[in-house]
Design a protein that fits this description.
alpha+beta; 4 domains; 6-stranded antiparallel sheet; single chain; 466 residues; 11 helices; 25 strands
C-alpha cells in the first residue's frame, strides 16, 4: 500500500504502479479508479523491513512524504488506522490555517506519547504568533470516540504549559465532528474560563464553523416520577441472605442484587429472574436458591477469585460498598434515600456508575464510581453533575417525589469521585484542575481489598487553577 498524508491509501499492484527514470530524475506513478498520483522522488527518508518512507516533490515543487508498506509484515497490521490518522492530520492542518491566519503551526503530531498520556487518535498542534501560543486538538469524523478529544486536549494544554513555562499559552482550540458537538460544548461551559480560553470548532465534510458553547444550555435528560413499590409476601427470606440487596426503583419495581449484581426484578406480581437474561420465575424459592448460590460465589472471602461471577461488574460491587459505608466518605451524608442513575440521559461511551445522595443540610452530592483506571472519568462525571444542577435549578427532584421530607439546598452539588487508590489515572487530576471553581470536587482512593471493606486511603480536594 502507498500512503500520502491527507489522502486515502492506494493499493500497489503490477498493473497500477510505475517507476520511471530520466537521467537523475526518478518518478513514481500509482493509480486506481478514483485518482492518479505522480510524484518525483528526492530521497529515501527511512528504509526498514516492510516499510519505505520517501521524500518527494509535489506539484509546484512543494516537499512531501510518501510511505510504502508491506501489509504482510506483522508490524504493519494497524496500517489502515495509521493511514486514517495521517489523512485527518492534514485536514486538521488545513483547518488550522483557515481559522488562524497569521499564526504559525510550530508543532503538529499524531504520534503517541504514553509518558504524558497523549493519544495518537487525536492530532495535536501548537500555534504561535509573536509571544502568544494556542494549543489545538482535533477529532476526525470517523473517530471511534470523538467526545474524548477534550480530555486529551486539556492534557495537551497542561503539558505544553509545563514544558515551556516562558511561553504564554492562551488556551485550547478543539475541532470535533458534529456527533461530538453538543457534549463538547456542554463540558466547555463548565470549565474555568480564567484558566484558559476555549475555542470550539465543528467540522463536517471538510468544512468547519466556530460555535459558541454558551448557546448550549439545554440537555437531553429526564427524571422519571417516583412510584412507590409494593412489597410482595415472602421477600423477607431472600433479603435475609447475606450479601443480598433490595432496592426500590423509580418505576415502582424492586431490584434484588448480590453485592451489586442484579439477579431478580419484581414488577407488580411478576418476578423476573436471571443474570444475563431474565425470565419469569416459577416461585420465590427458585429466586432464593439463585441468591444463595450467587452469595456463595460472590463473597469477599470466596475461595475461587477467578470465578467469572466473582469478577463480574466490579463497579456495581464497589457501588454497593459505597452505599453501605456512605458515611466513611462523608460523615454528613444521609444513608437514605440514595438514588442510582437519576437523572437519565444518553451517555454514549459512559462506563462509570453514579449515585445521587444528600447531606444533613439538604445539599446534593453527586457520587461517581469507577473500579479501574479511566482517563475520561473527570469529564464523564461532569456530564452527570451538570445535569443534576440543571434539574435542581428547575425544582424537578421535588416535583417528581425525590428526597421526600428533605428541603433541598439550591447550592451546587458536591462532586465525589471514588476509585481504588491504585486505579486513579495520573492525568485525572490535571483535567479536574481546569473545572470551574463552582464545582466543589473531591477524589477518594479506597484500599485494594475494597470488596471486604471500602477503607478510604486518601481524600483529596481538587485544587482549582490558581
Amino acid at each position: 500500500m502507498l500512503f500520502e498524508p491527507g489522502d486515502d491509501p492506494m493499493a500497489v499492484a503490477r498493473d497500477s504502479f510505475l517507476l520511471t527514470t530520466r537521467g537523475s530524475v526518478v518518478t513514481l506513478e500509482c493509480w486506481n479508479e478514483k485518482k492518479n498520483l505522480v510524484r518525483r522522488l528526492r530521497a529515501i527518508h527511512l528504509e526498514k523491513r516492510g516499510r519505505l518512507e520517501l521524500e518527494v516533490e509535489r506539484f509546484g515543487a512543494k516537499p512531501g512524504r510518501l510511505t510504502l508498506l508491506d501489509l504482510e509484515d506483522p508490524a504493519n497490521h494497524d496500517v489502515a488506522r495509521r493511514g486514517a490518522r495521517l489523512k485527518y492530520r492534514e485536514l486538521f492542518r488545513r483547518s488550522l490555517h483557515r481559522h488562524f491566519p497569521g499564526w504559525r503551526i510550530a508543532e503538529l503530531s499524531t504520534e503517541p506519547d504514553l509518558q504524558h498520556s497523549l493519544s495518537p487518535s487525536y492530532p495535536r498542534a501548537l500555534l504561535r504568533r509573536g509571544c502568544s501560543t494556542i494549543a489545538a486538538i482535533g477529532a476526525a469524523e470517523d473517530s471511534l470516540a470523538p467526545e474524548g478529544a477534550l480530555s486529551f486536549g486539556l492534557i495537551w494544554l497542561d503539558y505544553v504549559r509545563r514544558r515551556a513555562p516562558k511561553h504564554r499559552v492562551e488556551g485550547l482550540a478543539i475541532f470535533v465532528p458534529a456527533a461530538a458537538q453538543a457534549v463538547t460544548c456542554h463540558r466547555v461551559r463548565y470549565l474555568n474560563s480564567n484558566a484558559a480560553r476555549f475555542l470550539v470548532f465543528v467540522h463536517h465534510h471538510g468544512q468547519e464553523d466556530a460555535v459558541d458553547p454558551a448557546d448550549y444550555a439545554n440537555f437531553e435528560t429526564r427524571i422519571e416520577p417516583i412510584r412507590r413499590a409494593a412489597d410482595p409476601r415472602g421477600l423477607e427470606s431472600i433479603a435475609a441472605i447475606e450479601g443480598v440487596e433490595r432496592r426500590e426503583r423509580p418505576d415502582g419495581s424492586i431490584s434484588l442484587a448480590v453485592r451489586g449484581l442484579e439477579f431478580a426484578r419484581l414488577t407488580g406480581r411478576e418476578i423476573l429472574c436471571g443474570i444475563d437474561h431474565k425470565e419469569r420465575a416459577a416461585s420465590l424459592d427458585e429466586v432464593a436458591r439463585l441468591a444463595a448460590e450467587l452469595a456463595r460465589m460472590r463473597h469477599p472471602a470466596a475461595a475461587d477469585r477467578l470465578n467469572p461471577l466473582y469478577l463480574r461488574q466490579p463497579e456495581f460491587w464497589l457501588e454497593s460498598q459505597v452505599r453501605a459505608h456512605l458515611q466513611q466518605f462523608d460523615a454528613n451524608l444521609l444513608l437514605a434515600p440514595v438514588y442510582g442513575q437519576v437523572p437519565q440521559f444518553a451517555a454514549g461511551g459512559r462506563t462509570i456508575l453514579d449515585l445521587l445522595a444528600a447531606d444533613r443540610h439538604g445539599r446534593l452530592a453527586v457520587i461517581e464510581i469507577k473500579a479501574d483506571q479511566d482517563i475520561h472519568l473527570p469529564l464523564q462525571a461532569l456530564d452527570y453533575w451538570m445535569r443534576v444542577v440543571w434539574h435542581l435549578d428547575r425544582g424537578d427532584f421535588l416535583d417528581r417525589g425525590y428526597f421526600p421530607d428533605l428541603a433541598l439546598s439550591p447550592r451546587a452539588p458536591k462532586l465525589m469521585l471514588i476509585a481504588p487508590a491504585l486505579a486513579w489515572h495520573p492525568a485525572n487530576e490535571i483535567v479536574l484542575r481546569y473545572f470551574s471553581p463552582r464545582i466543589e470536587a473531591e477524589r477518594f482512593g479506597v484500599a485494594l481489598e475494597w470488596r471486604k471493606e471500602p477503607r478510604v486511603m486518601f481524600r483529596t480536594p481538587v485544587s482549582p487553577w490558581p
